[in-house]
Amino acid sequence: MNERLKELIGRLEIKHSLSLEEYEYLIENRCEEAAKLLAEKAVRVRQEIYGRDVYVRGLIEFSNICKNDCLYCGIRRSNKDCDRYRLSEEDILSCCEQGYELGFRTFVLQSGEDGYFTDEILCPLIRKIKSLYPDCAVTLSLGERSRESYQRLFDAGADRYLLRHETADKAHYERLHPAEMSFDHRMQCLRDLKEIGYQTGCGFMVGSPFQTAHMLAEDLKFIETFRPQMCGIGPFIPHKATPFKDEPGGGLELTCYLLSIIRLIVPDVLLPATTALGTIHPTGREKGILSGANVVMPNLSPVSVRKKYELYDNKICTGEESAECRNCLSLRMESIGYHVVTDRGDVKRLLT
Q1: Residues 204 and 175 sit within 8 Å (Cβ to Cβ)
Q2: What distance in Å separates the CA atoms of residue 115 and residue 324, rounded to the nearest whole number?
Q3: Is 3-41+53-341 a domain of CATH 3.20.20.70?
Q4: Domain limits of the chain?
């Protein structure tokens, strides 16, 4: 590792900021020694704030119907082979009941952009979940909606909202999405969410088609300036029913390297070790935690529909019951010296 790389990592730890060119240098000159140093610093920072606790989020994927046609996504509307489904309110509440018994204190309601789920349907559902489980947080991941809709959902009791920006480079965004989707609108949605008062999460794919080190540096700079409470990144994994089916996908090492950098940029961020990491490597999620992550998101969806919510190929944990998935993750975290906790897992926002 050269001296400049060492100096940049040290400065990032102290200042939580680098220039765009410096982030790009950090990525282009990635090496095993730099990755180890970054991980050590990221883990130390994370432990100062969150200790060795790992927060679990109960993921409920309640609809794979989507109006969008994102070129990388397995549930895109053009995929005629996708077996579509939509859970009922009763199904969703059953998932919450089972999850609560297993110790989950955050429910993540995620779906494609399904027009059936209007505010008139979602707001009573959110109120019911919050009434039944007042000690739990409700996180939404429903894509782009109007500011008015976000406000109504927030007023109904939603605590957090996840909306990956996917890439902070406008030209890159336009190569990954159809013409009717707008980079500027995606970014406006994120600003709206934060202004309304949600704990807001953004994120991006690592190794997506056409991505360069400069584009990844733009993502890091965006995270530095936006300061999300949550940030979800994961390796791009191709899906057989998309135009990018033959792309190589993202790598474990680069993803973990970026997790460490993000932890140093926003020390208090809630940072998942995603299911995608576990898909590309048997111990991918453990490696994510050892790189500075502190959240895992096991699936509470009915086993009967899990294979149908296929954003990418070969997704893991589609055949396990929720209790099996939860217990497996607990054992995995214990094997590396961490422990899954029964906790809402809110961000411990530091003063800036």
Answers
A1: no
A2: 33
A3: yes
A4: 3-41+53-341
